[in-house]
């Protein structure tokens, strides 16, 4: 018996150990010739929200916190270690912020008084420190007005916690008026918790603003751009779309704190800083220093979408603040500016250079349109107030841009009164795409693999816009990106894929989190100031996204879809571009299972590829120490007489790829 098993595994080409004689044995059928429906290019995408320091301190590579002194406490992030505030006669210097009220977007600057050339310094702490890498280059810029040439030189240094210098440069401020100075320096050591020390040589007063520091090695080598390692993880997903900028951040706690895209474009130093709505949302992880500088704004989001090959999907405020917070409503007779923002955004993205907003896009460096096809009205609002406002947006957008696809929301939950009301009303209105959100326990995801089997094929299409299995409970700080959550999501995703006729877009949420500055868990990508890694959930998403195919095929057992019988889940596609048949299998059982797949109706090459994602324990996770503990392994597979014999390890996700002749 043992020799026969070894022979069988060898013929399959699956390098999977631990085969057990008592494994479940299941026969499946796939008809390769029959396409059920086309799979949308947007089937698997990514959802970005500025939560967990995902933008400032994360994707946006700026290293200086509160670079323009615009936080509510203007010196937050800055310290004056050798300033004696108690004696005007003996202190080496003192910094204070000055407010210029007529400057509406960047009113504050820092005025520094230096006494007697005693080495007065300012120190910026960065975003939980600054990550610097040995021999890497960092680009500095600063605006300064040097009154009467008082300050002869400004020295900039990376320092560690022991004040050891890890790199140094200097500038000579030459003008009484505001002028931008730049320099570059090289880190001499690798340090995750570096700080920027600024020391002044001379005596007198100098004014400072926009003190900025970026690694030179950014994504696509764009000056003052995005963190290369994080974008690479997004690029590797081959996402069909990028949804931005959120999330609840779209709504704001109040309407005044909502996300306003027009304030996030143009010159970076003229973009208005706003407190982040997640800064004190959760008592378990307060972040009073969490603000949005909008260096990562709507232009950069569109640019990022283009970079990673994803369709842009912006979501705009519909005139309703977060209903979990203030629930503030803009009166219906004052809704027009919100609607106009949507119309202007479409022009910004797609308009010719002869249009007002298209010209602004062109002046920012992108003459060609961004080819925007989707726009979202509201995030996860609910109730009659949302439907009333949604109607106004749809009428205005469709009147001017009839080809634009509008995404609507069904509230924050996948069931209940809010959901039932929203979906019923949106169906009456012939909504095109309805956004559904679900944060549930792993079992819910396995149990709901059939959620869309009976959805009306002629009704609105579905955007599974936010989902993630919660290992403990929604919004719990103890949630983990563990293996049970990941393979349970995979089981659910086979159901999304099997219903591709209805489900057109899907995305895990939230996308990313800083290891020391998160508010919400779990998250797909984790990063610190030096490194980034994908969770087990990331690798599930990647397996599905990079193998989504173009045509849905039926995969059945005894003529019925495979939806969790014996804890086995499956979906099948073919890709007319790569000429592949792709079968996805999830064994959610604690025991291994034998599967025989009868592939009918097409000549297939005898050799294929199997990608296997599994882990020994349900609570296993990836980490900075072991970033790929749970990641796919690839092996060769041999087909025998159009029949695939597979042994699925317990708790595993398997992708089988076979080339068509």
TrEMBL record:
It comes from the Bacteria. This is non-reducing end alpha-L-arabinofuranosidase. PANTHER family: ALPHA-L-ARABINOFURANOSIDASE 1. InterPro entries: Alpha-L-AF_C (IPR010720), ASD1_cat (IPR055235), Galactose-bd-like_sf (IPR008979), GH (IPR017853), Glyco_hydro_b (IPR013780), Glycosyl_Hydrolase_51 (IPR051563). One of its GO terms (molecular function) is alpha-L-arabinofuranosidase activity. The keyword DNA damage does not apply. It comes from Flavobacterium cellulosilyticum. Belongs to the glycosyl hydrolase 51 family. Residues 1-23 form the signal peptide. Its EC number is 3.2.1.55. Residues 465-652 form the Alpha-L-arabinofuranosidase C-terminal domain. GO terms for biological process: L-arabinose metabolic process.
């Amino acid at each position: 018996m043992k020799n026969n098993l070894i022979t069988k595994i060898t013929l399959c080409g699956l390098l999977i150990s631990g085969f057990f004689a008592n494994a479940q044995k299941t026969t499946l059928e796939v008809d390769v010739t029959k396409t059920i429906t086309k799979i949308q290019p947007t089937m698997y995408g990514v959802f970005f929200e500025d939560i967990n320091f995902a933008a400032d301190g994360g994707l946006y590579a700026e290293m200086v916190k509160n670079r323009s002194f615009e936080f509510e406490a203007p010196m937050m992030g800055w310290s004056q270690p050798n300033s004696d505030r108690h004696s005007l006669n003996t202190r080496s210097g003192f910094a204070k912020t000055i407010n210029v009220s007529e400057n509406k977007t960047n009113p504050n600057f820092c005025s520094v008084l230096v006494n007697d050339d005693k080495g007065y310094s300012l120190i910026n702490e960065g975003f939980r420190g600054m990550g610097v890498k040995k021999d890497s280059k960092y680009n500095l810029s600063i605006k300064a007005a040097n009154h009467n040439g008082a300050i002869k030189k400004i020295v900039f240094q990376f320092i560690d916690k022991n004040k050891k210098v890890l790199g140094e440069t200097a500038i000579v401020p030459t003008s009484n008026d505001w002028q931008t100075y730049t320099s570059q320096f090289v880190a001499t050591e690798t340090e995750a918790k570096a700080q920027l020390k600024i020391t002044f040589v001379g005596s007198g007063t100098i004014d400072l603003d926009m003190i900025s520091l970026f690694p030179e090695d950014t994504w696509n080598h764009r000056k003052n751009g995005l963190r290369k390692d994080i974008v690479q993880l997004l690029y590797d997903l081959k996402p069909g779309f990028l949804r931005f900028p959120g999330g609840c951040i779209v709504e704001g706690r109040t309407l005044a704190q909502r996300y306003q895209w027009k304030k996030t474009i143009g010159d970076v130093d003229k973009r208005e800083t706003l407190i982040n709505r997640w800064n004190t949302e959760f008592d378990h992880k307060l972040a009073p220093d969490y603000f949005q500088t909008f260096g990562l704004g709507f232009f950069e989001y569109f640019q990022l979408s283009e970079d990673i090959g994803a369709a842009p999907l912006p979501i705009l405020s519909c005139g309703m603040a977060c209903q979990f917070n203030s629930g503030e409503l803009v009166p219906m007779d004052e809704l027009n500016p919100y609607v106009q923002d949507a119309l202007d955004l479409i022009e910004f993205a797609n308009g010719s250079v002869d249009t007002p907003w298209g010209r602004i896009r062109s002046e920012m460096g992108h003459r060609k349109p961004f080819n925007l096809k989707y726009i979202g009205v509201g995030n996860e609002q609910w109730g009659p107030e949302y439907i009333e406002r949604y109607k106004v947006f749809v009428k205005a957008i469709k009147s001017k841009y009839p080809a634009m696809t509008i995404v609507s929301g069904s509230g924050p939950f996948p069931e209940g009164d809010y959901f039932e009301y929203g979906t019923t009303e949106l169906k009456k209105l012939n909504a095109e795409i309805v956004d559904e959100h679900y944060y549930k326990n792993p079992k819910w995801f396995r149990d709901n693999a059939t959620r869309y089997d009976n959805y009306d094929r002629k009704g609105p299409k579905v955007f599974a816009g936010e989902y993630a299995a919660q290992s403990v409970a929604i919004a719990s700080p103890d949630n983990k990106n563990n293996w049970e959550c990941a393979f349970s999501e995979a089981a659910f995703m086979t159901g999304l894929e099997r219903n591709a006729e209805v489900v057109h877009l899907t995305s895990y949420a939230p996308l990313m989190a800083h290891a020391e500055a998160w508010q919400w868990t779990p998250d797909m990508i984790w990063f610190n100031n030096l490194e980034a890694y994908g969770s087990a959930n990331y690798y599930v998403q990647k397996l599905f996204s990079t193998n989504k195919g173009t045509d849905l095929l039926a995969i059945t057992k005894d003529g019925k879809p495979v939806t969790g019988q014996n804890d086995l889940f499956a979906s099948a596609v073919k890709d007319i571009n790569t000429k592949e048949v792709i079968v996805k299998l999830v064994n959610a059982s604690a025991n291994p299972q034998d599967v025989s797949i009868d592939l009918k109706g097409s000549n297939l090459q005898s050799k294929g590829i199997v990608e296997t994602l599994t882990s020994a324990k349900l609570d296993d996770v990836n980490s900075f120490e072991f970033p790929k503990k749970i990641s796919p392994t690839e092996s060769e597979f041999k087909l025998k007489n159009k029949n695939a014999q597979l042994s699925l390890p317990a708790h595993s996700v398997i992708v089988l790829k076979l080339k068509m002749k």
